[in-house]
Amino acid sequence: MSVSPPLAGVRAVVFDAYGTLFDVMAPTARLAGRLGPDAGTLGAIWRQKQLEYAWLRSLMGHYTDFWSVTGEALDFAMADLGLDDPDLRGTLLDLYFSLDAYPEVAEALDQLRSAGLVTAILSNGSPDMLGAAVDHAGLAPLLDRTLSVHPAGVFKPDPRTYRVAVDALGLPAEAIGFVSSNGWDVAGAAAFGFRVVWLNRFGKTQERLPAGPAAVIDDLSGLPALVTA
After folding, report:
1. 151-186 tens-digit pLDDT
2. Beta strands 195-199 and 215-217, pairing class
3. Is the pLDDT of residue 144 over 60?
4. Is 12-23+100-227 in CATH node 3.40.50.720?
5. C-alpha to C-alpha distances, 41 to 28, 125, 201, nearest whole angstrom
6. CATH number of 26-98: 3.30.420.270, 1.10.3720.10, 3.30.559.30, 1.10.150.240?
7. Which terminus of the chain, N or C, has less C-beta within 10 A?
8. What is the DSSP pairing of strand 118-123 with strand 145-148?
9. Known catalytic residue at 16
C-alpha cells in the first residue's frame, strides 16, 4: 500500500528566513578574527535576545520593526560581554544585510518550483532586511513572494502573522506547507493550521507545546520528497 508524503496536496511552501534559509551566525563568524573567543558567545546572545525582545514587545504591545529589535539585541549582547566598540556594532549590523544562505537552499527551492509549487518567505524580518538577504543569496528567482510580518504589527508566533501568508497567497492554511528551524515557530504555525516541517538543523529537542510538526528533516535536501509523491 502506498503512503502519501506528509505534505502531499499542498500548493505552496512557505519558509521562515533566519536560521532556516539564512545563517544568523554568519556576521560574528565573519569577524571571528577580530572578536576572538567572544565570537560564538556574542552570536548566541545576540540571537537569543533578538528572539526574546520580539516576543516581549509583542506581549507588551510595543511593536517596532525587526531591524530595531536586532540593534537592541546586539546592544545588549555587546554590553553583556563588555564590548564598547561603535565601529564593531556598525559592521555587525551591516553584515546582517548579507547573510549567507545554507548550501542546500537554492537546490531545494528549485526542485519545489519545478514541481509547480509556490515558494515564499514569511519572516519577522523587516522588508528591507529580507530583500537584502534574498538578493545577496541570489534567491529572488526561486521565490514567488518575500513576506514580512510587519503589516500585522506583531511578531511570530502570534496567529496574525501567519494570516499574512494566507492573505498574500490566497490559499487556505491547510494548503500551505511551512518550514522553520525554530521550534517555537513550528508550534505556532502548526497551531494556526499550516502543515509544518521542522528543519532541525542543530539536533535540538522538540518543544513541549500544544502543536507540532508533521515531519522533521535535518536539512532542506529532504524537503521535496515530503511535498511531492
Report:
1. 999 999 999 999 999 999 999 999 999 999 999 999
2. parallel
3. yes
4. no
5. 9, 22, 19
6. 1.10.150.240
7. N
8. parallel
9. yes
